[in-house]
Amino acid sequence: MPELPDYQSLMLPLLSLSADGPISLRAAVQKLGEQFGLTSEQMVQKLPSGQAIIYNRTGWAKTELVKACLVEHPVRGSFNITERGQALLREKPERLTRQFLMRYPEFKAYVEASQQRALTRDADTSDAATGDTTPLETAAQTPSERIDIAIAEIEAELLDDLLERIFAIENQTRRAAFFEDLVVELLTAMGYGKGLEGAGRRIGGTGDGGVDGVIHLDALGIDRVYIQAKCYDPSSSVPEREVRDFSGSLDTKKTTRGVFITTAKFSGPCKTYVESIQKPIILIDGRELARLMLRYNVGVREDRAVVIKRIDEDFFEA
Prior knowledge:
Elements: H1 7-18, H2 25-35, H3 40-43, H4 53-67, E1 71-72, E2 80-81, H5 83-90, H6 98-101, H7 105-115, H8 121-130, H9 134-138, H10 143-167, H11 172-189, E3 200-202, E4 213-216, E5 224-230, E6 237-238, H12 240-252, E7 258-262, E8 265-266, H13 268-276, E9 281-284, H14 286-295, H15 313-316
Parallel strand pairs: 5-7, 6-8, 7-9
Antiparallel strand pairs: 1-2, 3-4, 4-5
């Protein structure tokens, strides 16, 4: 299976397509997909933002060709080649890159303006003295992709930090109580017991009957979900017997639904066991716990909000 081309690899084929007359971005994406032999699955692969990757990369390739004055927008919703672009095709280049486009003063000015805030004074001096354009050559991702990658890196680090902060509570008794409160808050944040005041509560401690918390799903407390919360070393695995014991505790509570949440991992036998019984017991390990905390804003808060806007191609379609 061919790989999705990076946006610089799309520049030359896109320029060639524009030589046949005005073409819309959507039509260009389809033609490029055919040229590169992309599968239907690859054509709909999306960025975390929801936009198709191939559409995003083609859009950025077109943007940079426009900045280099190689293509233009003669009418709404389409673009075609310029005289400069035709002259470039006659040179029969093997590939177009950002470094190649730096030969055009308009593109060079565009790049310098977009990098001005990101570059330090030392970097500016160094680049001016050496003519070093290596970063342009290696910039295979579009700006949208670089943003998504940066967000993914930040979130991956945050997931580890969340579990570490739980274990930063040195007193084991306090840590266990904190963790039990945490999982109750998480489940209510996820919508369980929604609209009911005090729907979730911790009941861990001596004589807890083998459960650490409960969520009431209705005003009378008839429909309930019981919780088992185990704050174990993240590198360890929960023994199967503990899941079995929790299942037995649900019988004494006259309910069948339970959630077993831990900072550790679940062994294969644990997963096999819950799949073999009729009770709907959900297992949430440490990694999934951290993801849910991040998603439902438990233990985290918004640092900053950045709105990224893009051209509404449908608006400009003829």
